[in-house]
Every structure is written in structure tokens, then in C-alpha cells.
Amino acid sequence: MNIFNGLKIRSLKELILTFSDEQKCINFLEKIFWNGNPVSPFDKTSKVYKCKNNKYKCKNTGKYFTIRNIGLFKNSNLKLQDWFIAIWLFTSHKGGLSSKQLERDLNLTQKTTWFILKRLRACSAFENNHLLSGEVEIDETYVGGKNKNRHADKKVKHSQGRSFKDKVPVLGLIQRGGKVVARVVPTVSRYDLEPFIFRTVNLHDTVFTDEWTAYKNLHKYYNHSIVNHGKKEYVNGNASTNCIENFWTRVKGAIIGIYRVTSKKHLQLYINEFVFKHNTREMSPSEKFMHLISNIKDCKMTYDKLTAK
Fold it and tell me: One Pfam family for this entry, by name (predicted)?
């Protein structure tokens, strides 16, 4: 894949050499975002004048702007080279990347790297919005600490089974051999699960679930097959939920091994990251880098929004 001036970027070292200064990063982003036709972030219909020092002027508003006023980089004083390195590491680390690790990699404060990664997770959400078809496995899971690992005074009563008093429910759908989509949901009732399923899976296609009652009406809209986990049944002919359960295993492994703990407020951002990594698993590191950086133009996530209660 040609990334910049005909080069193929195969490693982090090559990325740093290719984008060795701020101007090269600016030129690259202007090519990716505008392709020679700069667009004002203040008025997309306005004529734009090129000025000195990488600045542009919006004719209709009289305001000046640069490529750094666009998407992910808006209101950020971080060097673009640091952003590029962070994007490369974020997309290439299969198991996840912690803010502490990125702090060491970039020699920045942990507060800064926390914000960088939260922004990147928010910007990766475009990969979590696919329409699935064919054979689709559906399963809900629960993310949160294990009750047995808590101190006696912190244990949550009546939290076994599908009770999620101390956990967050997440619904996942995976097209066999294809994409995955996952969302944090308010509850695991049919009233919260069905609307998302209907938006995500083509009607009349094939869906596989377990015996949970929230799925009992899916046969009215899909070719619906069930595996009864309560009876220790994990494969029923062609029916199983093994693919989506394998995805959940990777998600929980990363949360426990890399992130240790995730808040309810930010859990969807982490889910976005894991979905992005699954859906780009066939891409090379350079393709993943380009895939994300090409889709961050409209991404908006401020520090105040991330930290708001």
C-alpha cells in the first residue's frame, strides 16, 4: 500500500524516518484530508485562501485555520509526529495498549497519553457500525470485576448468573468469517437487545444464539437456531456461538491483562478498540495505520467531554 511519496511503511522505525518533522506530517494530513482542495472547518461552502506558515483563511468567516483544526488533532498541542507514533502503536498492538506503556514510549505524562488513547478509541468507532449478513452469532457478556476476588465488605450481593448489579452488559454480534459489532446496553432484556439486532443484521438472514429469553422472538424475523448452554449444549448442527465467545475471551483477557479495570463510563471506548482490532486483523500494520488516520477527520472528542461526570 502506497502511504507517502510512494513508500511502504513496514515498521515503527520507518514511520519515524518517513515523518521525521512536523512539516512532513502536515503535508501528509493535507493530502489525506483535502487532496489539494482545503475545506474550511467553519464553513464548508466557503472559498479558502492559502496563507503563510501552513495557515488557510476562510473567505466567508474571515477566520484562519490549519490542518490541526481538523478532527482528532483539534485543540491538541501535541506534536503530530507523536500523534502518528501513537496511532501506529495503537493499531499494531493486538492485545491493547495502556496509557502507562504509551507514557514510556513517548516520554509524555500519563495524563496526556490517557487522553491520546481515549481519543483514538473514540475515533475507531467507525469500525463498530457495520451491517452484518449471512450467518451471524449473537451473545451478550458482562464486564466487571469478579465478586469472588473482592474483599468481604465490597462483595455485591445476588450478583450471580445474568445479574449485572456489579457489571456492565455488552451485546456482541459477529458475522462468521467477517466483522464484529458490539455495544454496551442498558439491560439484557429483549427491549434493549432486539432494536440493536434489527439495526445490525439483515432481516431473514441466519442468526445463532443461546437459550436466553430475550432472543425467543428472533425466529419471527430471522432463520434462528439455538444452542442450549444450560444443558451443556455448545454445538447444535451448524448452530453455535463459539466465534463471538472467542471474541469475548480476547476482550476480557485484554482488560484483565493490560487495562486491569475499566469504568462503566468509558467501557464503550474500549469495546470500540477491540472491535477495530478484530475487524482489521487481516490488514498489515501500515494498512491499519492508514485505515484509522483516514477516518479521523470528523472525530471530535475533547478532554472536558472525556472527564465530564
Answer: DDE_Tnp_IS1595
User: Which residues partner with 121 through β-bridges?
Assistant: none
Classify residue 145 by burial, with Cβ atoms within 10 Å: 0-12, 13-18, 19+. middle
CA dihedral of residues 164, 231, 174, 169 (deg, nearest 10): 0
CA-wise closest residue to 30 among 16, 48, 46: 48
Correct CATH for 129-278 of 3.40.50.720, 3.30.420.10, 3.10.690.10, 3.40.50.620: 3.30.420.10
Query: For 171-219, how does the pLDDT look when each residue is reduced to its tens digit (9 = 90+)?
Result: 999 999 999 999 999 999 999 999 999 999 999 999 999 999 999 999 9
CB under 8 Å to 218, separation ≥6 — which residues?
A: 194, 197, 207, 209, 224
Domain spans, the chain: 12-127+283-297, 129-278
